Amino acid sequence: MTTAHEPWSVVSQLQSEINRVFGNLPDGNTSSATAQWVPAVDVAEYADRFELLIDLPGVDPNGVEITLDNGVLSVAGARQIEKAADQRAPQQQRFERQQGRFYRRFILPDTADAENVRAAGRNGVLEISIAKHPKAKPRRIAIT
User: Fold this and answer.
1) How many CB atoms lie within 10 A of CB 68?
2) 124 Rama class: left (phi>0) / alpha (psi -120 to 50) / beta
């Protein structure tokens, strides 16, 4: 029996452990230290761009803050408990969806074009597209 080797699984495990440890600090000055949950993110690289798909169901895209500073893309916001149409208190209640502030940070490679970033929210997914700098094309240099 063979098992597929997935070299990035170690990185995912390390990231999960870091988020678990640092996400629960009692106090801190950074947004990541005060985050109450971490949204799932899919990252894809294409020839001309990077794309991030961030799961944010129940979060108004207009309430999400996206910043890019010194090659670090940060995404922050909050998901609040939705109020039921019936104002009476429920007899029983169970919450499985994370509530409160969230925060994610991504260090972008040098090939990312910080001046060409687009974001759109659809169906509970925030899509962030970051263009790559065009590759330098070889050119012939004339001798004079």
Assistant:
1) 16
2) left
Helix (H, G, I), strand (E, B) or coil at 96: coil
Structural domains of the chain, ranges and CATH numbers in brackets: 30-81+99-135 (2.60.40.790)
Q: What token pair was written down for 121? A: 């929210």
Angle at 107 between CA 105 and CA 112, to 5 degrees: 125
Using alpha carbons, select from 45, 38, 29, 28 the residue that is nearest to residue 111.
45
| 3-state SS, residue 63 | helix
Q: What pLDDT, in 10s, does the model give residues 53-102?
A: 999 998 999 999 999 999 999 999 998 877 666 677 777 878 787 889 99
Q: Where are the alpha helices (DSSP H) in the chain?
A: 8-22, 31-34
Question: Does residue 129 sit in helix, strand or coil?
Answer: strand
Beta strands (DSSP E) in 1-138 are 41-45, 49-55, 65-69, 72-79, 100-107, 112-122, 125-132
- pLDDT digits over 4-50, tens only? 555 556 666 666 655 555 444 433 334 566 788 999 999 999 999 99
Instruction: Report the predicted TM-score, pTM, of the whole model to 2 decimal places.
Output: 0.68
How crowded is residue 144: how many other Cβ atoms within 10 Å of its Cβ? 3
